[in-house]
UniProtKB/TrEMBL annotation:
Name recorded for this polypeptide: non-specific serine/threonine protein kinase
EC number: 2.7.11.1
Molecular function in Gene Ontology: ATP binding; metal ion binding; protein serine/threonine kinase activity
Domain Protein kinase positions: 90-320
Amino acid sequence: MSKKIDISFEDEESLSTHLKRRKTRPQVKKPVVKQSYEANADVQRWLNTQTIDQKDLTKPPFAPTFLAGQRDASWILSSLSSFYEQDLITDVLHVVKSGKEATVYCCLADPLTGLEYAAAKVYRPRMFRSLRNDAVYRQGRTQRDVEGHVVRNSSHHQAAFKSQRGRAMQVSSWIEYEFQTQLHLFAAGANIPRPLAQVGNSVLMEYIGTVGEPAPLLQNVILDHEEAPALLASILNDMELFLAHNRIHGDLSAYNIVYWEGEVKIIDFAQAVDPTQSEGTFPIFLRDVERVASYFAQYNLVIDALAVATEIWTRQQGAF
């Protein structure tokens, strides 16, 4: 038989206080509502800069059906409308891939380009906060302040980009540098997608693959052992070609190489560096070689990454 627990109170006031305490519900913290990146002042300024005035349009407004209902439709539309106005694309078909910093879209290319499809890489608004490993890759690039002047001193560099306007200028310069690198290397004969245009936060290039089936990343491909040696040689040749034209990819791996119909193409040059602008960039180049070597090791293609990187670097040292 269970015992009845007797709780006694010395007076009525303490009993009343006890009952009120029992009825009081525990306080629950309200969830923090995060402000969208699109609402950021820098982002809004960027959007206003890119948005095309409807009265200046020379053709019907760009209105891809794919964007209907998309949460960030206004951001994407403002990012791609200029390509439409330049007769480079006519429609947006689907998302190719989406990452932390950018989303790539498959677009229907304008016949004037000579291509059937184009890939539009649109950087997200979060880029106004940071770019991954930004400080590391600034070492191999020419930096400019809000007036376009070269910034060489590190303390001056920090001051130059402390303001919102300065940060926006830094992001703009970063994306423009990526596109200029693509133009530079494609003209040199590198196996990369053909670059088409760059406006603001967007880069347009040749699309590799078919609609709904973009070329897979090399990381996700199981190669025939017979084709692996030629593909490894192709990638190493491109890396040397990059170096001969004063570029290091900076983030090369099987995740930044696509495979299509027996060939490979290198993509994503956001972290490319120019070895002529800074000393100490060999470790970045070596890391690229190591990552490529690591992927091909599964096909019994074992190379000494340090020896190969050193040989290529020494052979091309005269270029920088």
